[in-house]
Amino acid sequence: MENYQVSDNSISIRKLRFVYSLIYTVILLLVLIGSLVLIYRFNQRINNVELADEQFSELDVMETEILTSLELSLVPINLFDSGEVVEAFFLDPSGQMCFHLELFFENFIKNYSQFNQVRFLDASGQEILRVDNIDGFAKIVALENMQYKGDRYYFSDAMEVDVDTIYVSQFDLNIENSVVEEPHRPMIRLAKKIMSKENEILGVLIVNFQGSELLDAIESKNQHEGDEVFIVNSDGYNLLSPSKESDFAFMFTDKMDEGFFNQQKAVWDQIKNGENEIITDAGNYYIRPFNLLDKEVVKNTSETLYLIMKVPPENLNNKSKGLNTSIKYATVIFLPLFLFIGVQLGFAHANKKWFQNELLKNASIDAMTGLFNRRSIFYFLNHHIEQQKRTHYNIAVVFIDINNLKIMNDKYGHDKGDEMIISFSDIIKNNFRKSDLLSRIGGDEFLIIFLDSSEEGFRQSLENAFEQFKKKGIENVGIPYEFSYGITSYIKGESIDKLIDRADSLMYIDKRKKKNKPPE
User: Fold this and answer.
1) For residue 424, which phi and psi values (nearest 5 degrees)?
2) What is d(CA 59, CA 501) in angstroms, rounded to the nearest whole number?
3) Is the distance from CB of 118 to CB of 108 less than 8 angstroms?
4) When comparing pLDDT for 172 and 355, which is higher?
5) Is the pLDDT reported for residue 17 higher than 70?
6) Are residues 90 and 203 in contact, defined by beta-carbon separation less than 8 angstroms?
7) What is the mean pLDDT of residues 275-286?
8) DSSP at 17
């Protein structure tokens, strides 16, 4: 178990949003100002190339919108790593970890509206946990409504990538129960393979990014009335077009011959030959090839998409007039856009920071030691007692008190006292089974739950820990550390408080026997 550290989130979310929005806005404004200065200096040279530069600049904004959106989407997916909680869920999808992950995913959907769906699939491709975004509300999908996705390309592709790589699918339509969902939902899927500590594949975490929001954003970046913007995949099918009729035609058997490759065949042939500016009688075409995500650490389908801007003949003359006048108006046109993007990027960054801190603060982990805290260990103890009524396995608890912690703090300082606590935590982590539940319930008090274990086995583990703890004290401060403990087993029908009290009483008997002396 990792040693989590929960940071003090003293800065309000509003202040974070203001700071990050200001930073991003200033950067974007500097980019805008620099671009306008360069355009002004070269205005005498720009004539025939004016239109091409203008169109390619517009395509740059659109490409940036796509890449920025997907890069921001990678941040939240990294919150769900293949740690002990996720591994425990895969090993027992109906266990207590399911509740925690469902809660995490609900918060995920609420804070990141661009996601349509978050789900875990097991190694066969069967969904085992899924939360949907229904009109901005997170909905946990019932087990009987979960689907088998082992035959979908994105699952098999995700299973092939390296464990530290996030897989990004091709841009297509969402399919539910083997049928294209109505109304159509354009989707990009981000997936991460989950591995056990033994390096065995447990399954895949998949997040669906809502492509419709991205397509709407691209259309909104088209600044010139009458210009037509297309996004075309590597096979020549439209993902975005003015008519909408042929968008994602490759998903339908009766539309396989509809697409940019057929509707504008001559232009498509030149695009495939590498042309990025094509002049025809029907208008001028400006092309920008790109990939969904251009990072070495992220593997995608390597499909090349094409951003295409078509300027019809009636717009050509208007777009070529008055470069200097355009510069004057560009500030008025683009300033709100850059301010909007800066604020949105700042909000996204601030929300990510806040969301991460909230997850850690609300987790059931003791910040200093990385062990379960009091609330969570009592929850697990109650849960196992309820289960024991049906399965009749043995439950034992050990109440531990570190001896002379106050003296250690007073004589050597609180840093040494903290070091003593952390050393003890590390030692018990290494001496007990993964199935044993370890917790810190107070300053120097610890509680361990043993499930279906022999008394001889866990007593030996405690004695081993005791000897190691003594040696650690000699290494750290020159005197042996010690602890006292009391072990007892659950008696059917008794309360948790009574069980803990018995262990506590036995611990004090052990403490009197040891008759520890203060550190010298």
Assistant:
1) -60, -45
2) 70
3) yes
4) 172
5) yes
6) yes
7) 93
8) H
